[in-house]
Amino acid sequence: MSKEEDDQAFDKMMAEIADSDEESDDSADLAAFYSAQPKPQLSGTEAPPGSFQTGLAIKHYEDDDIQFGGASSAAVGGGGSAAEDEVAFEALRAYVVKGARSGDGFIQCYVDRDRQGLNRLAPVYRLYMEPPGGLGEGEEGRFLMAARKRPGNKTSNYLLSMDPHPTDRASRRVVGKLRANWTGSEYTMYDHGLNPEKCEAPSAVRRELGLVKFEYDEMGPGRMRCFVPATTGAGSAQVWRPTGEEGTLAA
User: Fold this and answer.
1) The domain spanning residue 13 has which CATH number?
2) Mean pLDDT of successive 10-residue stretches along the chain, which has 251 residues
3) Model-level pTM greater than 0.85?
4) Could you list the residue range(s) of the whole structural domain that residue 125 is in?
5) How many domains does the chain have?
6) How far are the Cα atoms of 40, 198, 225 from residue 203, in angstroms, in the given order?
Protein backbone atom coordinates (compact mmCIF):
# COMPACT_ATOMS: atom_id res chain seq x y z
CA MET A 1 0.00 0.00 0.00
CA SER A 2 1.46 3.35 -1.07
CA LYS A 3 1.77 6.39 1.17
CA GLU A 4 -0.97 8.16 -0.79
CA GLU A 5 -3.28 5.18 -0.32
CA ASP A 6 -2.45 5.11 3.41
CA ASP A 7 -3.33 8.81 3.71
CA GLN A 8 -6.58 8.21 1.88
CA ALA A 9 -7.40 5.27 4.15
CA PHE A 10 -6.79 7.37 7.26
CA ASP A 11 -8.89 10.26 5.95
CA LYS A 12 -11.65 7.78 5.09
CA MET A 13 -11.58 6.44 8.63
CA MET A 14 -11.83 9.97 10.03
CA ALA A 15 -14.71 10.69 7.66
CA GLU A 16 -16.62 7.66 8.90
CA ILE A 17 -16.54 8.83 12.51
CA ALA A 18 -17.09 12.48 11.66
CA ASP A 19 -20.27 14.41 11.32
CA SER A 20 -19.86 15.34 7.69
CA ASP A 21 -23.04 17.37 7.27
CA GLU A 22 -21.54 20.14 5.18
CA GLU A 23 -24.81 22.06 5.10
CA SER A 24 -24.78 22.72 8.85
CA ASP A 25 -23.79 26.09 10.24
CA ASP A 26 -20.53 25.68 12.19
CA SER A 27 -20.23 29.36 13.16
CA ALA A 28 -21.22 28.64 16.75
CA ASP A 29 -18.58 25.90 16.97
CA LEU A 30 -15.88 28.20 15.69
CA ALA A 31 -16.83 31.06 18.02
CA ALA A 32 -16.98 29.00 21.21
CA PHE A 33 -13.56 27.92 22.46
CA TYR A 34 -14.72 25.98 25.49
CA SER A 35 -18.43 26.68 25.91
CA ALA A 36 -20.38 25.43 28.91
CA GLN A 37 -23.07 22.87 28.26
CA PRO A 38 -26.39 22.33 30.08
CA LYS A 39 -25.64 19.90 32.87
CA PRO A 40 -27.85 16.98 33.87
CA GLN A 41 -29.33 17.10 37.35
CA LEU A 42 -27.38 15.09 39.91
CA SER A 43 -29.64 13.03 42.14
CA GLY A 44 -27.76 11.13 44.81
CA THR A 45 -25.34 8.76 43.14
CA GLU A 46 -27.63 7.64 40.34
CA ALA A 47 -27.03 8.60 36.74
CA PRO A 48 -29.94 10.11 34.79
CA PRO A 49 -32.09 7.75 32.71
CA GLY A 50 -30.32 6.48 29.61
CA SER A 51 -26.92 7.65 30.80
CA PHE A 52 -23.84 5.52 30.29
CA GLN A 53 -22.12 7.39 33.12
CA THR A 54 -22.32 7.17 36.90
CA GLY A 55 -23.25 9.89 39.36
CA LEU A 56 -19.57 10.35 40.13
CA ALA A 57 -18.89 11.08 36.49
CA ILE A 58 -21.60 13.77 36.50
CA LYS A 59 -20.06 15.32 39.61
CA HIS A 60 -16.66 15.42 37.89
CA TYR A 61 -18.23 17.05 34.86
CA GLU A 62 -19.85 19.73 37.04
CA ASP A 63 -16.59 20.36 38.91
CA ASP A 64 -14.73 20.76 35.63
CA ASP A 65 -17.40 23.12 34.34
CA ILE A 66 -17.03 25.30 37.43
CA GLN A 67 -13.22 25.31 37.15
CA PHE A 68 -12.81 26.26 33.51
CA GLY A 69 -15.98 25.57 31.57
CA GLY A 70 -18.50 28.05 32.97
CA ALA A 71 -19.98 31.06 31.28
CA SER A 72 -17.48 33.39 32.95
CA SER A 73 -14.61 31.48 31.37
CA ALA A 74 -16.19 30.26 28.16
CA ALA A 75 -13.08 31.28 26.28
CA VAL A 76 -9.53 31.50 27.52
CA GLY A 77 -8.63 35.17 27.57
CA GLY A 78 -12.29 36.11 27.56
CA GLY A 79 -12.61 38.94 30.05
CA GLY A 80 -10.50 38.12 33.09
CA SER A 81 -7.18 39.59 34.12
CA ALA A 82 -3.99 38.42 32.44
CA ALA A 83 -3.15 36.28 35.49
CA GLU A 84 -6.63 34.74 35.58
CA ASP A 85 -6.54 34.03 31.85
CA GLU A 86 -3.15 32.33 32.24
CA VAL A 87 -4.44 30.12 35.06
CA ALA A 88 -7.55 29.21 33.03
CA PHE A 89 -5.43 28.43 29.98
CA GLU A 90 -3.06 26.12 31.87
CA ALA A 91 -6.00 24.40 33.60
CA LEU A 92 -7.63 23.74 30.25
CA ARG A 93 -4.38 22.40 28.78
CA ALA A 94 -3.96 20.05 31.75
CA TYR A 95 -7.54 18.85 31.35
CA VAL A 96 -7.13 18.13 27.66
CA VAL A 97 -4.00 16.00 28.03
CA LYS A 98 -4.82 14.13 31.24
CA GLY A 99 -6.41 10.72 31.43
CA ALA A 100 -9.81 9.83 32.83
CA ARG A 101 -10.18 9.68 36.59
CA SER A 102 -11.25 6.63 38.52
CA GLY A 103 -15.04 6.43 38.43
CA ASP A 104 -15.45 8.46 35.25
CA GLY A 105 -16.52 5.38 33.34
CA PHE A 106 -16.87 5.87 29.60
CA ILE A 107 -16.27 9.35 28.23
CA GLN A 108 -18.30 9.97 25.10
CA CYS A 109 -16.68 12.16 22.46
CA TYR A 110 -17.24 12.79 18.78
CA VAL A 111 -15.24 14.22 15.89
CA ASP A 112 -16.58 16.88 13.54
CA ARG A 113 -14.92 17.18 10.15
CA ASP A 114 -14.92 20.69 8.67
CA ARG A 115 -14.48 20.75 4.90
CA GLN A 116 -16.10 24.10 4.25
CA GLY A 117 -14.35 26.75 2.18
CA LEU A 118 -10.56 26.49 2.18
CA ASN A 119 -10.77 23.57 4.59
CA ARG A 120 -11.81 21.35 1.70
CA LEU A 121 -8.14 20.97 0.74
CA ALA A 122 -6.99 20.41 4.32
CA PRO A 123 -9.96 19.36 6.51
CA VAL A 124 -10.04 20.36 10.16
CA TYR A 125 -11.06 17.65 12.63
CA ARG A 126 -12.53 18.99 15.89
CA LEU A 127 -12.95 16.85 19.00
CA TYR A 128 -15.94 17.48 21.27
CA MET A 129 -16.89 15.86 24.58
CA GLU A 130 -20.48 15.02 25.43
CA PRO A 131 -21.82 15.59 28.96
CA PRO A 132 -22.91 12.59 31.05
CA GLY A 133 -26.31 11.55 29.83
CA GLY A 134 -25.60 12.53 26.24
CA LEU A 135 -26.56 15.56 24.19
CA GLY A 136 -30.08 16.88 23.99
CA GLU A 137 -31.71 18.09 20.81
CA GLY A 138 -29.86 21.09 19.43
CA GLU A 139 -27.03 20.83 21.96
CA GLU A 140 -23.36 20.66 21.09
CA GLY A 141 -20.49 19.02 22.89
CA ARG A 142 -17.68 20.84 24.66
CA PHE A 143 -14.82 21.67 22.31
CA LEU A 144 -11.51 20.13 23.39
CA MET A 145 -9.07 20.33 20.50
CA ALA A 146 -8.70 20.36 16.74
CA ALA A 147 -6.35 18.73 14.23
CA ARG A 148 -5.19 19.70 10.77
CA LYS A 149 -2.74 17.96 8.45
CA ARG A 150 0.53 19.83 8.08
CA PRO A 151 1.83 20.18 4.52
CA GLY A 152 5.41 19.66 3.43
CA ASN A 153 6.21 16.67 5.65
CA LYS A 154 7.66 13.35 4.50
CA THR A 155 5.01 11.45 6.45
CA SER A 156 1.45 12.29 7.51
CA ASN A 157 1.67 14.84 10.30
CA TYR A 158 -1.28 16.44 12.10
CA LEU A 159 -1.07 19.50 14.36
CA LEU A 160 -3.15 19.17 17.56
CA SER A 161 -4.28 22.44 19.09
CA MET A 162 -6.86 23.92 21.45
CA ASP A 163 -7.46 26.49 18.71
CA PRO A 164 -10.51 25.66 16.52
CA HIS A 165 -8.36 26.77 13.55
CA PRO A 166 -5.00 25.00 14.08
CA THR A 167 -2.53 26.66 11.74
CA ASP A 168 0.30 28.10 13.87
CA ARG A 169 2.79 25.47 15.05
CA ALA A 170 4.34 28.03 17.45
CA SER A 171 1.01 28.88 19.11
CA ARG A 172 0.65 28.43 22.87
CA ARG A 173 -2.56 26.56 22.18
CA VAL A 174 -0.70 23.69 20.52
CA VAL A 175 -0.82 20.57 22.69
CA GLY A 176 1.00 18.16 20.39
CA LYS A 177 1.00 16.39 17.08
CA LEU A 178 0.06 13.09 15.48
CA ARG A 179 2.73 11.64 13.20
CA ALA A 180 2.67 8.57 10.98
CA ASN A 181 5.51 6.23 10.14
CA TRP A 182 6.74 5.72 6.57
CA THR A 183 4.12 3.10 5.70
CA GLY A 184 1.19 4.79 7.42
CA SER A 185 0.58 1.74 9.60
CA GLU A 186 1.45 3.50 12.88
CA TYR A 187 0.43 6.91 14.21
CA THR A 188 2.17 8.26 17.33
CA MET A 189 0.77 11.12 19.39
CA TYR A 190 3.26 13.47 21.06
CA ASP A 191 2.87 16.42 23.37
CA HIS A 192 4.36 19.84 22.56
CA GLY A 193 7.89 18.87 23.66
CA LEU A 194 10.98 18.71 21.47
CA ASN A 195 12.53 15.99 19.34
CA PRO A 196 15.21 14.25 21.45
CA GLU A 197 17.65 14.57 18.54
CA LYS A 198 17.26 18.35 18.66
CA CYS A 199 17.16 18.84 22.42
CA GLU A 200 19.84 18.76 25.12
CA ALA A 201 17.62 19.13 28.20
CA PRO A 202 15.97 15.79 29.10
CA SER A 203 13.01 17.57 30.72
CA ALA A 204 12.17 19.31 27.43
CA VAL A 205 12.02 16.08 25.39
CA ARG A 206 8.56 15.36 24.01
CA ARG A 207 6.32 12.78 25.65
CA GLU A 208 4.52 10.00 23.82
CA LEU A 209 0.82 10.18 24.66
CA GLY A 210 -0.49 7.32 22.56
CA LEU A 211 -0.03 5.01 19.61
CA VAL A 212 -2.48 3.78 16.96
CA LYS A 213 -1.53 0.78 14.81
CA PHE A 214 -3.32 -0.35 11.67
CA GLU A 215 -2.98 -3.99 10.63
CA TYR A 216 -4.16 -4.81 7.14
CA ASP A 217 -5.33 -8.24 6.03
CA GLU A 218 -5.66 -8.93 2.31
CA MET A 219 -8.31 -11.57 3.00
CA GLY A 220 -10.41 -9.53 5.46
CA PRO A 221 -10.98 -6.16 7.13
CA GLY A 222 -8.13 -4.32 8.77
CA ARG A 223 -7.70 -3.92 12.51
CA MET A 224 -6.88 -0.89 14.63
CA ARG A 225 -5.06 -1.21 17.96
CA CYS A 226 -4.53 1.67 20.40
CA PHE A 227 -1.91 1.98 23.14
CA VAL A 228 -1.59 4.60 25.90
CA PRO A 229 0.65 4.84 28.98
CA ALA A 230 -0.91 3.52 32.19
CA THR A 231 -2.68 6.09 34.38
CA THR A 232 -3.21 6.53 38.10
CA GLY A 233 -6.62 6.70 39.74
CA ALA A 234 -6.42 10.49 39.57
CA GLY A 235 -5.94 10.41 35.83
CA SER A 236 -2.22 11.20 35.77
CA ALA A 237 -0.53 9.28 32.98
CA GLN A 238 2.88 7.75 33.43
CA VAL A 239 5.50 9.87 31.72
CA TRP A 240 6.67 8.13 28.55
CA ARG A 241 9.57 10.20 27.26
CA PRO A 242 11.81 7.98 25.08
CA THR A 243 15.12 9.29 23.80
CA GLY A 244 15.60 6.51 21.26
CA GLU A 245 13.64 4.07 19.12
CA GLU A 246 14.04 1.24 21.62
CA GLY A 247 11.97 3.06 24.27
CA THR A 248 8.98 4.09 22.17
CA LEU A 249 5.44 2.77 22.49
CA ALA A 250 5.86 1.18 19.07
CA ALA A 251 8.97 -0.77 20.10
Assistant:
1) 3.20.90
2) 57 51 37 36 37 45 48 44 76 76 78 87 90 82 90 88 86 89 90 85 87 83 86 75 84 76
3) no
4) 3-19+26-247
5) 1
6) 41, 13, 29
